Structure formats: structure tokens, C-alpha cells
Amino acid sequence: MIDFIIGKIEEKDINSFTILSNNIGYKASASLFTLSELEVGIETKVYIDMVVREDDISLFGFSDTTERDVYKLLNTVKGIGPRLSLQALSGISYETIILSIKNEDVTGLTKAPGIGKKTAERIILELKDKVDGFNFKDELSMPKAPSKNSVIIEATDGLVMLGFMEYEVSEIITEIYEDGMSVEILIKEALKKINR
């Protein structure tokens, strides 16, 4: 079982990253939170969950152990697997997830992508007695706005997928980004500037 990997981040996209360690490139799926913390070309330590199935071995990477612990906890709930757990952790902070469970706040959990009311109720029912070890201040219960880095990364990757070169768009996106701007608006504004 792999617990963590120390190596250089070789590349990343909106869903995963590749880390080079001892001449082996390990590709791991990750949340937007973790991806926003990683920098390409920088040596770093990432924590790993390795999921082994009959026909597949998948790696899931995390920039800190608390996010991995919350991810593993979500995976214990019936009907929630690694992909949905990561999707939820990309939409709201892990502090918000834990505090929503502790406070039995169904609405707070449904703000996570892919988590509907019934799933949120099931998460609370199954996990409310398992979250005592997590201690966050109540003011963190409000969902965090996407960080500047995560919005810029997503917008850049979106334009690269449309066929633009990263070096062409990264500077433009950084220039036009304003606080609170969504990925969709940032891409639209960048396209206007590119097409002038």
C-alpha cells in the first residue's frame, strides 16, 4: 500500500496530476483543492489512497492528510465511491463537509456537486457518530469561495482543451482575473481578448 509519494509534479489538469518519483510517473486523481496547492516543476509530498479492483488500480492524491481522511470517511457511505467523494471535495471544503455532518445540515452538504438531499441525509445518518475526531471552528462552516489559483487553473485548462496553447492563454487569464470571477466568465472574457 502506498501512503505518500515525494517527487516533482510533472503535469496536472482539472482532474488529476502526475508526480515523478524515482523515474516513475504516478498519475493520481485529485480534488480542485489539492490541484490548486500543487505547482508543476516543484518537488512536493502528496498523500495517496490506492484503490485496487479486479480490473483496475487507481491512485487518489491529496495535499494534506485531513482531506484524505474526510475522503476515506465519505467512501464508507453506501453509494459513494472515490470519484463522487473527490467531486464533493472539489465543490465545498472538507471543513464544511465535517461541520455539516456534525450540525446535521443537509442543505450545507447538498452544495457539493453530485450530493442530493437523500444522499446528504444518508451521509449524516451514517457518519454523524464518526466525525468527533475532526475539530474545526464554526466560522469555517460557510462554504469557501473557489481560490484564485483553482479558478485560473480550470480556466487555463478549459482553453487548452479548446485548442489554445497554454503559454498563449495563461498570461491573459492572469491579467483579466478579478476576485469572485467564475471559471465560465473568465473563459468568456479571455476568448473575447484572444479573438480581438
Short structural summary:
The chain is α+β, with helices and mostly antiparallel strands and 196 residues long.
What does this protein look like?
By secondary structure, the protein is of the alpha+beta class. It folds into three domains: 4-62, Nucleic acid-binding proteins (OB fold (Dihydrolipoamide Acetyltransferase, E2P)); 65-141, DNA polymerase, domain 1 (Orthogonal Bundle), CATH 1.10.150; 148-194, Helicase, Ruva Protein, domain 3 (Orthogonal Bundle), CATH 1.10.8. Helices cover 45% and strands 20% of the residues. The protein has helices spanning 32-37, 65-75, 82-91, 94-102, 106-110, 117-127, 148-161, 166-176, 183-194; strands spanning 4-12, 16-21, 24-29, 43-53, 56-62. A five-stranded antiparallel β-sheet has the order 3-2-1-4-5. A hairpin with a 2-residue loop joins strand 2 and strand 3 (24-29). The radius of gyration is 18 Å and the shape is globular. 31% of the residues are buried.
Instruction: Please identify, by name, the CATH architecture of the largest domain.
Output: Orthogonal Bundle
CATH topology of the largest domain: DNA polymerase, domain 1
Order of helices and strands: EEEHEEHHHHHHHH
Helix coverage percent? 40-55%
For this entry, give a set of tags.
alpha+beta; 9 helices; Helicase, Ruva Protein, domain 3; 20% strand; 5-stranded antiparallel beta sheet; single chain; 3 domains; 196 residues; OB fold (Dihydrolipoamide Acetyltransferase, E2P); DNA polymerase, domain 1
